[in-house]
Amino acid sequence: MHYIGANIGEDEKIQSIHKHVTKGFAALKILLKDHAGRYAIGDEIYLTDVFLAPQIIGLSERFNFDMSDYPLLSRLSEAYMQVPAIQKALPENQPDFPSIEGKI
Question: 11-35 burial by CB neighbour count: b if 16+ within 10 A, else e?
Answer without folding.
Answer: eebeeebeeebeeebeebeeebeee
